[in-house]
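Entry 14. Structure prediction run on the chain below.
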Amino acid sequence: MGVSTRSSISLGEGSTPFVAARRLSERLGFDLHLKCDGLNPTGSFKDRGMVVAVERAVQAGAHAVVCASTGNTAASAAAYAARAGIQAVVLTPAGATATAKRAQARAAGARLVEIRGTFDDALRLCRELGERDGFVLVNSVNPDRREGQKSVVGEILEQLGSAPDIVALPFGGGGNVSSVAVGLSEAGASTRIVVGQAAERATTWASAIRISEPAHAANVAELVGSGRVEVATLTEEEIRGAWQLLSLGEGVFCEPASAAGLAALDHVPDVAGATVVCILTGHGLKDADAVDDGGSAPVEATLDAVLEAIA
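Output returned:
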């Protein structure tokens, strides 16, 4: 939809599934719908904005795009750079990126550099690199990224048939929160925006929102001050509980950070009976290591052994 579907480097981003969560709606007491943005081409919502940012970088004469990443931005930038025939340079904090996300970036030919520092250190270096000739920074501080990301709002309104009472999503760097707010404002929707951030921002298990200093903190604070956005600060247990609830309750497997929006709803008033859309920002296979495999040993190839194992 929107800008991305007209792009010459499109990978088919957008038009992601919209799932009515009937079992969880009954359990939680509100009408819950899941916008499954983890089913974008590289497995996260980042593709909506990245296709726009990379195409415009190419139009501006860039020979490389550069980004700091905890994983999803890296995978998306690498894929669209490969599609456009230019280089992607990715800086990540050492040991802070899920294996699957690093694999995606490397497979698409990105120059992946781990640094001894935080995401904020990586973003600072990327800003410096982006000032050099031929390089374009494609983190969400790039307005082209935010322009593409707001397309999710148009899809939600079309798929639901009206504006929801609440849109809930994770709060990592704040770029997606800002984009959703702009999209709703442009649509004339008075929808509440509820976001969940990790209390342990610098070390959270939900690696996609492991950002101690959000690049868009000031904008999100302004949105909170104006009453547009409500922020809930979540424990690790709350994020994990919501993540498990989505898989067990509806069969929707998202990466841990994606569940922060759902967890945040426990912290805000007047949710009962509301129509709620949770934007699930990344696919569960992005961080498969988060799942406990149970550690069970193989059993004998007999029916009795199988019955005993599942008892």
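DSSP finds 13 helices and ten strands in the chain.
Filed with the rest of this week's runs.
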